[in-house]
Write a sequence for this structure.
């Protein structure tokens, strides 16, 4: 945690000069700040935001909320800095010299352009793996999103573990899921329709109705037993 | 008994029951089921642990039903997205219970990309007397079988098993932040940063997109969805919150794609509090309907707000969670704490609201008496069965004994996830990898 008025420590990743934290910044008790919005952001806050933005974009899958909030904050800061006559020379972090140069330009357009290109990169990455894009106009009610992605035919070769759900791949999903209870198991009352089964003895002496879960399990057992009885191979 | 001068208390004092250390994994979600009998936690390792409340026994009047581990299972595994060449985290973002319809329990759990429906059921009988298998399970030669017998069910030790019943995958490009079960009990929604999808529990290969705020050009993106929830009674109504501090209420009867809201809740910015961080601290991290359905509660970085559904221009109540952080926003921005997402919860009668803070503190606000209290969830400061002592943060001037100064707060100890029993004064508080369950004192 930073204390008020202390210089920022030199960080190892970047070779920037240590910048004094603008005391005006951290002290809202300061009369001028308390009453009116801060006039000019310190360059350190600006650099910090640029670093955060870059760090966020460097991730393979950026946290979109974090990214959007940092970008919006950076825009605010840049907007407040633009009219300032003399900007202290901002040393460019080695990771993004071109971006820092862009951002030094005091016009909104330059910033927007660089932001735009960065965000566009993001959208290209997103675009590759998306299911079919929802139409801009209102399509028929209930357009499906989770279905197949026919436009990614070339990428089918990646195999069943691909990010997109292909029609064939659907079955793979259910291989290890017990789907024998597909029918209304969630909402069905204690079933009367299922045969009580051939159980005997203690079953009858106890409560006459079996749990639905137990009936299901019994069905499993019986179906499994039947499967065993049929000899494998052609012809009987 | 405590001799504190500060006697502010909410309802009754709270007794600390147990501290359950759930391995070394960080808890990422906590949720009671609809009766409060079960409490589910999800963690960063993709596991779900369910606790069940003990039946109250007449022998031990002083021991109210305590929560013991009922079931543990691996809900999500780390996955690899080959198209984007990145790992999909197995961390459980949210768990939501379905109302109980039969002997089994059902819950939804989700990570960033995939929602799963789990069935948790008990088995205390097993079949014996197979024809084709002997007692050890070895197959018998059918030719040796001369008589048939009918398998019978015999009692066995209780076994709780969790099975995945549905997997709802590949419908979210962005990270899922919320799931919410509809009051029709047939559908639910899942929300990511830019879209909200509506699912039918029976159908896993298709979902309806009901909200889409993705701009045509990503460079125009300025706002994301942060949370969403269905109305507790009206199955056509839901709300979603945004990173700009707004809440939109939508009616699914109005159109198939609910991009146009029915109601729009936003509080105008206070000009005296304006700073470069105004937008970040206004970003809503959680939104919850009251049990009555009349109000919504939102949590942003410094406050909790209660809104009346009939008044869109400002909240009816605002509670300061930790206003002493307002002067530290720059530092909190630097260490990213300003992006922490705290949740908030109502008690069963909607009279008290609770949310977490730093230093393992959590706060409760009584809406009727306007009293509030700060409590701490940590082993060092409370013994089992002890009454929790209210805490106080010293904001300046002379620090009293037992107060803690703002600069001494531990920002790595954050309470992001809490839950309140649906009808009783029992709360569950997740402090990093520890779960605390507190109950009302028994008089």
């Amino acid at each position: 945690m930073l204390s008020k008025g202390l210089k920022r420590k030199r960080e190892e990743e970047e070779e920037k000069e240590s910048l004094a934290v603008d005391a005006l910044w951290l002290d809202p008790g300061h009369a001028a700040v308390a009453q009116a919005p801060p006039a000019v952001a310190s360059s350190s806050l600006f650099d910090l935001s640029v670093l955060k933005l870059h760090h966020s974009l460097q991730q393979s899958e950026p946290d979109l909320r974090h990214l959007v909030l940092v970008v919006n904050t950076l825009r605010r800061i840049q907007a407040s800095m633009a009219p300032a006559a003399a900007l202290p020379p901002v040393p460019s972090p080695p990771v993004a010299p071109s971006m820092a140069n862009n951002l030094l330009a005091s016009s909104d357009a330059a910033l927007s352009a660089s932001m735009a290109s960065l965000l566009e990169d993001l959208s290209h990455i997103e675009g590759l793996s998306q299911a079919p894009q929802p139409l801009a106009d209102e399509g028929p009610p209930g357009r499906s999103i989770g279905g197949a992605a026919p436009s990614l035919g070339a990428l089918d070769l990646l195999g069943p573990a691909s990010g997109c759900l292909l029609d064939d791949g659907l079955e793979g999903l259910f291989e290890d899921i017990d789907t024998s209870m597909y029918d209304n198991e969630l909402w069905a009352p204690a079933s009367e329709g299922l045969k009580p089964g051939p159980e005997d003895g203690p079953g009858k002496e106890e409560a006459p109705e079996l749990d639905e879960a137990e009936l299901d399990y019994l069905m499993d057992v019986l179906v499994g037993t039947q499967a065993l009885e049929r000899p494998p191979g052609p012809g009987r | 008994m405590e001799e504190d001068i500060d006697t502010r208390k909410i309802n009754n004092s709270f007794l600390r029951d147990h501290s359950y250390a759930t391995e070394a994994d960080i808890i990422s979600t906590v949720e009671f089921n609809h009766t409060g009998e079960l409490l589910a936690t999800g963690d960063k390792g993709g596991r779900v642990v369910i606790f069940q409340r003990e039946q109250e026994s007449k022998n031990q009047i002083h021991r109210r039903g305590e929560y013991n581990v009922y079931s543990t299972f691996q809900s999500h595994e780390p996955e690899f997205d080959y198209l984007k060449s990145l790992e999909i985290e197995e961390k459980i973002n949210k768990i939501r219970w379905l109302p109980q319809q039969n002997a089994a329990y059902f819950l939804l759990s989700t990570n960033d990309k995939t929602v799963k429906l789990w069935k948790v059921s008990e088995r205390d009988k097993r079949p014996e007397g197979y024809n084709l298998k002997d007692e050890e399970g070895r197959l018998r030669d059918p030719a040796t079988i001369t008589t048939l017998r009918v398998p019978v069910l015999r009692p066995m030790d209780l076994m709780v098993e969790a099975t995945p019943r549905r997997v709802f995958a590949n419908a979210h490009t962005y990270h899922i932040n919320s799931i919410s079960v509809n009051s029709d009990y047939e559908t639910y929604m899942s929300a990511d940063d830019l879209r909200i999808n509506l699912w039918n529990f029976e159908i896993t290969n298709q979902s309806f997109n009901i909200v889409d705020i993705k701009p045509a050009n990503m460079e125009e993106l300025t706002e994301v969805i942060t949370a969403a929830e269905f109305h507790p009674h009206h199955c056509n109504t839901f709300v979603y919150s945004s990173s700009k501090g707004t809440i939109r209420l939508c009616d699914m009867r109005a159109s198939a794609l609910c991009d146009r809201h029915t109601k729009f809740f936003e509080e105008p910015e206070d000009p005296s509090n304006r700073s470069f961080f105004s937008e970040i601290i206004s970003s809503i991290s959680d939104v919850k309907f009251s049990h009555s359905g009349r109000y919504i509660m939102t949590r942003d970085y410094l406050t909790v707000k209660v809104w009346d559904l009939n008044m869109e221009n400002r909240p009816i109540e605002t509670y300061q969670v930790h206003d002493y952080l307002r002067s530290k926003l720059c530092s909190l921005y630097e260490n990213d704490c300003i992006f922490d997402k705290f949740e908030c919860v109502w008690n069963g009668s909607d009279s008290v609201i609770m949310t977490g803070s730093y230093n393992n503190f959590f706060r409760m606000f009584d809406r009727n008496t306007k009293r509030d209290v700060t409590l701490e969830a940590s082993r060092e400061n409370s013994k089992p069965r002890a009454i929790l002592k209210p805490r106080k943060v010293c904001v300046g001037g002379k620090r009293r004994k037992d107060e803690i100064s703002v600069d001494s707060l531990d920002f790595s100890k954050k309470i992001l996830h809490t839950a309140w029993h649906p009808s009783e004064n029992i709360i569950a508080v997740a402090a990093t990898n520890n779960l605390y369950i507190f109950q009302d004192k028994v008089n």
Summary: The domain at 36-120+166-439 of chain B is CATH 2.130.10.10 (Methylamine Dehydrogenase; Chain H). The two ends of chain B are 14 Å apart (CA to CA). Chain B has one domain: 36-120+166-439. Chain B touches chain A through 89 residues (CB under 8 Å).
